[in-house]
């Protein structure tokens, strides 16, 4: 009798264990159709699809990582294209959709072609960008905060900019003020993470802006802990090894100007209350400020670019809270010395880089990247914006963002750093 009970108990325990494994596997895959469209990740041979294959170097992974990797890799359908029915569903829609968002109506889109720039040798460009990044990450004489951390040392809340698309094996680290709204839209279309009347969005520009920046819309690394518990770091490492990882960057000073224009020259209630009021009190000696941004603008009370720069340089700022993501350094958002990015795009070459990336990901037949804004903040504006900023402040500001300049190959703005 006792043996029979033990046998039944064993069967129950084994069944529970198998169910848990299936849940972990299914939760990771997301759908019955898991497709990897990546074919250019550096650690793999040309034309190979990143994945876990015989002979791949997994010795560095702990046992639990290897177990999970094999579990999550089994029975994955590594096809090179989405089924025709799904593909046809996604490519439908107008090539120039009506734009209802106020900000995008004001800015307008540049639908013109850029054939004159299509001659860029994208492959060599990527090799050079990655070479620069790897060189300075490995250079012990070039230091900046958090450089020497390992991936395990990065707290979960600092991984909230890494968006994962399990359907296509893609990880995108978004950088605010670097076309991130439209790249998030692309990720939503690819991952089918948002539906419109029960149907996945087909055209990136059809997705309302408020949904694009809703944190619940995207699967990000910092959500892994709630989903996978103690296995979260192991799964992150597996995905980082298997998936294609990309980010887009921008001249750091131009990005700051763009952030200032977007958040302080336009009426933004949240940024007025959280940032503008303290800046106006600390650096412009204003008291009894209006509680709403519309009242403040009506009274002519606006943060100046000088106030903004003082705020960035003030040591009290970081003591109170980390930089807001719109002006936080890229190395703090995306951890480029801890994560081996396969593709580094730049806003300065956005149209060419975006087209090339979608082609390499084999998703260019599914969608097109939304066009650039006509009046995007230009690098040529730097001299005018910084003309009234004291030289010492400019030099301090460069030191604050030096790592972003160096790691991503942006020239030092000598004209702003000398008399």
From TrEMBL:
Source organism, top-level taxon: Eukaryota
Keyword Ribosomal protein among UniProt keywords: no
Localization of this protein: Golgi apparatus membrane
Entry GO CC: Golgi membrane
Family annotation (Pfam families): Sulfotransfer_2
Membrane topology: Single-pass type II membrane protein
GO-annotated biological processes: carbohydrate biosynthetic process; proteoglycan biosynthetic process
Residues passing through the membrane, by range: 7-26
GO MF annotation, one: sulfotransferase activity
Keywords: Carbohydrate metabolism, Glycoprotein, Golgi apparatus, Membrane, Signal-anchor, Transferase, Transmembrane, Transmembrane helix
EC assignment: 2.8.2.-
UniProt similarity note: Belongs to the sulfotransferase 2 family.
Protein name per UniProt: Carbohydrate sulfotransferase
Gene expressing this chain: Chst12
């Amino acid at each position: 009798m006792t043996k029979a009970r033990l046998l039944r108990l064993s069967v129950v325990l084994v069944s529970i264990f198998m169910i848990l494994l299936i849940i972990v596997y299914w939760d990771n895959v997301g759908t019955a159709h898991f497709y990897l469209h990546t074919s250019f990740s550096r650690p793999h041979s040309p034309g190979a699809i990143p994945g876990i294959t015989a002979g791949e170097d997994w010795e560095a992974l702990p046992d639990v990582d290897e177990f999970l990797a094999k579990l999550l890799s089994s029975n994955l359908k590594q096809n090179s294209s989405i089924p025709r029915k799904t593909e046809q569903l996604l490519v439908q829609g107008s090539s120039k959709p009506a734009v209802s968002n106020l900000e995008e109506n004001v800015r307008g889109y540049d639908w013109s072609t850029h054939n004159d720039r299509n001659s860029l040798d994208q492959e060599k460009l990527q090799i050079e960008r990655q070479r620069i990044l790897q060189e300075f990450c490995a250079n012990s004489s070039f230091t900046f905060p958090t450089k020497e951390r390992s991936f395990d040392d990065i707290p979960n809340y600092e991984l909230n900019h890494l968006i994962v698309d399990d359907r296509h094996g893609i990880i995108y680290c978004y950088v605010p003020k670097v076309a991130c709204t439209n790249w998030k839209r692309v990720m939503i279309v690819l991952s089918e993470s948002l539906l419109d009347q029960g149907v996945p969005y087909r055209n990136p520009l059809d997705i309302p802006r408020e949904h694009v920046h809703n944190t619940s819309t995207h699967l990000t690394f910092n959500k892994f802990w709630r989903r996978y518990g103690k296995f979260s770091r192991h799964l992150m490492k597996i995905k980082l090894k298997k998936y294609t990882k990309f980010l887009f960057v921008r001249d750091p000073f131009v990005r700051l100007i763009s952030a200032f224009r977007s958040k302080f020259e336009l009426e933004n209630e949240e940024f007025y209350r959280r940032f503008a009021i303290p800046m106006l009190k600390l650096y412009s000696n204003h008291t009894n400020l209006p509680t709403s941004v519309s009242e403040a603008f009506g009274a002519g009370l606006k943060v100046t670019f000088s106030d903004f720069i003082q705020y960035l340089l003030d040591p009290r700022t970081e003591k109170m809270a980390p930089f807001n993501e719109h002006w936080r350094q890229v190395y703090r958002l995306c951890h480029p010395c801890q994560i081996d990015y396969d593709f580094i795009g730049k806003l300065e070459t956005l149209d060419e880089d975006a087209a090339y990336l979608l082609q390499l990901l084999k998703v260019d037949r599914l969608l097109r990247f939304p066009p650039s804004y006509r009046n995007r903040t230009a690098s040529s504006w730097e001299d005018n914006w910084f003309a009234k900023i004291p030289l010492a402040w400019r030099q301090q500001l460069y030191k604050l963002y030096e790592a972003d300049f160096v790691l991503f190959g942006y020239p030092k703005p000598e004209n702003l750093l000398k008399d």
